[in-house]
Amino acid sequence: MDFGALDAMPVQSGTKRMQGYCGLCIARCGYVAEIDSGRFVALHPDPTHPTGRALCAKGRAAPELVYHSERLTCPLRRTRPKGDPDPGWERINWNDALELTAVAMRRIAERDGPQAFAFSMASPSTTAIADSSPWIRRLMNAFGTPNASTSVELCGWGRSYATRYTYGVGSVASGIGGAMADIPHSGCLILWGYNPSIARLTHATMIVESLKRGLRLIVVDPRQAGLANKADVWLRPRPGSDGALALGLANLMIERGWYDSDFVRDWTNGPLLVRADTGRLLTERDLTAQGSAQRYFAWDSNRSDLVLYDPRTSRYESNGSNIALSGEYSITTAQGPVLCRPIFELYAILCRRYSPDVIKEICWIDPGPLERAARLIWHARPVSYYAWSGHEQHTNTTQTARAISILYALTGCFDAPGGNVLFPSVPVNSITGEDLANARQLPAALGLAERPLGPARWNFITGRELYDAILHHKPYPVRGLLGFGANLLLAHADVRLGREALAALEYYAHADLFMNPTAEMADVVLPVASAFECEALKVGFDVSVEAQSVVQFRQPVVPPRGECRSDAQIVFDLACRLGLADSFWHGDIQAAYQHQLAPSGTTLKELRAAPGGLRVALKPRYAKHASVDANGTPAGFSTPTRKVEIYSETFLNHGYQPLPEFQEPLVGPRTRPDLAARFPLVLTSAKHTLFCESQHRGLPSLRKHALNPEVELHPETAEVRNIAAGDWVVIETPHGSVRARARFNESLDPRVVCGQHGWWQPCKELGAPGYNPFGADSANLNLIINGDARDPISGTVPHRAYLCEIRRSSSGPTDGFEETRSP
């Protein structure tokens, strides 16, 4: 069929409306699609849906996305070497595309092991890949590779994984189980590096409604963006200083007694004693050779004696109300007397280092707003918080996330009404394949040896680890890659290194809606159906108990363009080619959905008949850590001590600080004064409200509101550099330079500038240019971020806290990126 033939085919007359949910980001907003004579013409909010109060500009532009003239609509094969500026794309059929990919995967696995073939995937939070990401993970597990480059270190690590070391679960829901802010019942909400007006519109509408009933709001953001304009307190930290800010707030709360001492005593490991000589928890084994190394001691203030704590029962041997949270005690051990202090005392000592004056120096926040925020957190309880990638894309992100999560523990609001609640969920069968034979014997993921507590622990790898394995075979070679929408060369640092690595792959297949700079490096490109052209199943919508009760089967608004297939269909088809059909219901996706739904009490047939979704009755339970079993043993938390872990021996065992010590950003004015003399400004970045990361700049209705890449700076910063609003400027870092137009923002600290990543795509309809993502005059912000500076635990690079200088430019970026067209 000709590429445009589908649009020219006879269509039905009349207009119809279809309910569904938008797949473009984590918000999953409920919609009503309008189809006129068989053509998708509009997308409207569905107010009957718990996430359907509003739609963002990206959602409203859905028809443009579906019918865009530059959509990939057939599989393509490269016919020229990767060094050639023209890939020589040749149209092939799906059988050939899948066979080429399956043959390459089998060849590489047989020669070097399945771990030598990696997967990449766009972020499920900010793109439509979440519809298919569980099936992609299942294919990885069935095939036997642990290596998934999914940008977890940039989006999700802090809020979903680092906080597991505190609570045993992520602090916010992320599709993997976590505690979500119970906004409708909160007295105070903290938005930390999170602008829901851009990232999750459902939260924005919930917050606005809650503000009308009296919700108090604290926003932590270097810019006064979105709901920061409605905040009771707006804290403007220096980018990358969030960990110090969390410790400074905790210092005020502890100093003034604004913390829940009962929760700290009963449900954190704050009472446990730490040896001053080794920094380790005092154990029964320390006192007697016959004692257990897994039973610990606290101090009973009434008896002036030790009291034993056993994690297996989550209990102390004596009345918990007498257990000390402060003090210093000399304990007679088998090796002699040892000074010990409770964990909470050590935490309080750490926090005291971050007085209001110190916070002013480090974070650039005055004592007044700091005091008001601390007071509000305590006196406006119940309090909840939501942290996002604003605090994650730093070289200290892991300890920052821990510091924020421990600050929150002081409120005693975890899993309480109006706090961060572990909402109930509709029961379903897991579909990600951890039970498959190959998944039970996966080799170590890339980066596990260097960062054993980082993303590789969950089989996620960083971009740099992928590139090093391809180019230097560290710690083993990666020779093949299957990508699902991950535009690595725009989303990650080390852009030139990444381009070199992708060129060196033995085989690379990339599935996407459009050709892009990363797809250009592939051997085979697969055309993907948009979220409005394919079906998907969503069980629970995260943001409330009501939303969690919804199970919805989204049906296609219109058929896929040309030969496009959904990511899920590509996975199932490829699995059958690889001989993995038994693990994929013999290629029957409908059977797979039925398996997933089996425990839910709903069926696929029922869901098809109810396009707006079905509600499954759910009843919230709170303080689940306090629930007891038949023996009276509390459930506790899924941590080594069964408590909220203020002090982590897991971190200590791996050479990291057991308390959330603040570390300066590795490329900042305090750590690199030598660079700051030449690059005096702190460069941060923020997600653009109109685009899904590096996607959608080719859509006219969106691009007309943002024709060029911009960098925000304070008018005072511009004045001393002779920069006028709208001027093209050069953003220069120690790693290179890119260009953007100057935009003034008086809410920024004059020492901070804020850029935008993701610029490459032209918009032909508006005559808006594309930009060479690799050249000296590029607009690709990540081109000037060096990945050598990394969080030692997660491998996160400093996308939001780097050093730069800004100067006027006589011209804009080179308008030289020509997107390669389908034949």
Protein described:
The two termini are 13 Å apart. The protein has a domain at 673-808: Beta Barrel (Barwin-like endoglucanases), CATH 2.40.40.20. It is α/β, with parallel strands linked by helices. Strand 28 and strand 29 form a beta hairpin. It is globular, with a radius of gyration of 27 Å.
Task: Provide key terms for this protein.
single chain; 823 residues; alpha/beta; Barwin-like endoglucanases; 7-stranded mixed sheet; 6-stranded mixed sheet; 27 helices
N-to-C terminal Cα separation, in Å? Answer: 13 Å
In order across it, which strands form the biggest sheet? 5-4-22-21-20-6-7
The proportion of residues in beta strands is 15-25%
Which overall shape is indicated by the principal axes computed on the Cα atoms? globular
| Main sheet properties | 7 strands, mixed
User: What's the number of helices?
Assistant: 27
- Class derived from helix and strand content: alpha/beta
| Computed CA radius of gyration, to the nearest angstrom | 27 Å
Mean pLDDT: 94
CATH arch. level architecture of the domain at 673-808: Beta Barrel
Count of DSSP E strands? 31
> Which fold name is given in CATH as the topology of the domain at 673-808?
Barwin-like endoglucanases
Low-confidence stretches at least 5 residues in length (pLDDT < 50)? 1-12, 817-823
CATH class call of the domain at 673-808: Mainly Beta
Helix content: 25-40%
